[in-house]
Amino acid sequence: MADGNPLSFLRVSRAEIDLPPGTNPHDDAVYERAAHNFEQLKRTALVLEDGPAVYVYRLATGSHHQTGIAACFSLDEYDTGLIKKHERTRRDKEDDRTRHMLALGAQTGPVFLVHRADPAVDAIVACVMGDPPLLDVAAADGVRHTLWLARRDERDRLVSAFATIPALYIADGHHRAASAARARNDIRDRAITRRTLGDDADYTTFLGVAFPHDQAQILPYNRAVKDLGSLSPTGFLDAVRQRFSVEAGPATPATRGEMAMYFERRWYTLRPVVRPDDADPIRSLDVSILQEQLLEPILQIGDIRTDTRIDFVGGARGTAGLERLVEAGHAAVAFSLYPVSLGDLMAVSDAGDIMPPKSTWFEPKLRDGLLIHLI
Question: What is the end-to-end Cα distance of the chain in Å, rounded?
Fold first, then answer.
């Protein structure tokens, strides 16, 4: 992807591509190369704002578009739970991102945030978008990224308007936020002096884009299981019928509470015979019902994070990707799920709970390197 393009940001985010094949991506040389490449880009291709900046960032793909606020957000508020999580992080991934941030002295990938929609914020965003965009580019995947730089008065109004937002929710980027907090602690502990623009947006903040909840979209995060374990095809289908109503149906569930199953070249609609109380924000999710009533008791898949018999197909690849896995013999059965809603995610986060693994797929994605926060 980066071949022949010296300005590709992959040379910063995946600097091992500039080193000999087989180089360990966590070798010290990789982080050193990333810092070297970043310095080169800063001299030749990047613009450093000379003061505090807030941006409006629009993502558009097909008929969908969503517009958020790109800025720096408080790590203290992340620590105290005003910026809420719904996902656990892995230590090894945190280690990598923290080392990358410290080597560069920068955060190069924004955290994807959502907040409950607010008319006052929307009105200011509309004013900012009345000016010509700072940047407008269609990426290779077809997603269009458009940036507007807020004028000083608009910037200050946006900051004031956000003071009334009760909470922010991390949609995508839990490892980035956790790593920013660890980088902050490291800088504090070692009393490292960092350059600052005098705007308090230093190593105590993290780069993020906050979208209103009624614009962000969650796509399905589907499942495919490689084999039926010890069950025959007939035995598997009989076991499923003991726990679900099973009938011929479409590849995409029509509503929450339904799931689609692709098995032996046919799509089925499954509805659980026993449905958990909707008051339970986690067990009532379709991903939880599938896990607790089918994957674990019937197919003996206990932990989907570690079991190698299960694969996941997220986002726009859709149900055709599931069919291909089964038809090619890479999976014995596949499941298409109704997407989790933003309301579900916020309810789980508000309760201080963790979403089931592999339950949310946010698309379109934010672009690394488009906005960078120096720490």
Answer: 28
What is the Cα–Cα distance from 152 to 158, expressed in whole angstroms?
A: 10
- Cβ atoms of 78 and 176 within 8 Å: the answer is no
What is the SS3 assignment for 140-167? Answer: CCCCEEEEEECCHHHHHHHHHHHCCCCC
Q: Phi and psi for 66 in degrees, rounded to 5? A: -145, 145
Residue 50 confidence (pLDDT) = 86
Residue 137 and residue 114: Cα distance in Å, rounded? 23
Query: What is the rounded CA–CA span in Å between residue 39 and residue 8?
Result: 13
Q: What share of the chain is helix, strand, coil (3-state, %, to 5)?
A: 35, 25, 45
CA distance 212 to 47: 28
Task: Kindly state the tokens that stand for 259.
Answer: 């799931």
Are the CB atoms for 240 and 264 separated by under 8 Å?
Answer: no
pLDDT digits (tens, 9 = 90+) for 321-353: 999 999 999 999 999 999 999 999 999 999 999
* pTM (two decimals): 0.90
Relative orientation angle of helices 91-104 and 28-44, to the nearest 10 degrees: 40
CB-CB contact of 336 with 222 (8 Å): yes
How far is Cα 260 from Cα 270, in angstroms, rounded to an integer? 6
Amino acid found at 325: L
Handedness of CA 29, 30, 35, 37 (dihedral sign): positive
Place of tokens 């997220």: 314
Cα distance between residue 46 and residue 37, in whole Å = 12
The sign of the dihedral angle between the CA atoms of 254, 364, 111, 10 is positive
